[in-house]
Amino acid sequence: MSDSIKVQYDYIKNTRNVLLSFLEQLPKHVLHEVVPNFGFGCIINTHIHVADCYQYWLGTFGLRVEGLSFATKEEIENADVNWVRERFDKVDLIVQTFIEKYSSEWTMNISGNVKWQAEPWKTTPLWLITHAETHEFHHKGQIVTMARQLGFEPPDTDLAVIE
């Protein structure tokens, strides 16, 4: 199963790259323009939230890595697509480590504390990576919708060419 999960994540990275390449073409102010009724407000903040989600669930919760840095308000305000790419480079290393660690234990029970719950939360490594990946695609849909609402037509990010 680990080989399949690695291939699947490679597909996700390919799709992410299509989106990031499109976003590089947009003026920085457009990336920061607030679009009403979206949970993270603007394109750049939404994409940073996705990276931080991978870091939290796979890095902090799943791998028990301490000291991971999450985006500060100032970093978000100054972020551009290159900064987001660098965040995802770090995410890619976390995902690689996560896949290697749990390669033969995808359905084992793991638990840990989450700050918004009194009781420890129990899950499996397979659920954590599934959550992070589907979460990315949920927000990818929001990002391309925000771009359209701002007058920019994104490329097809659902049927990206697999290299």
From TrEMBL:
This is Damage-inducible protein DinB. Belongs to the DinB family. Keywords: Metal-binding. Coiled coil: none annotated. InterPro entries: DinB, DinB/YfiT-like. Pfam families: DinB.
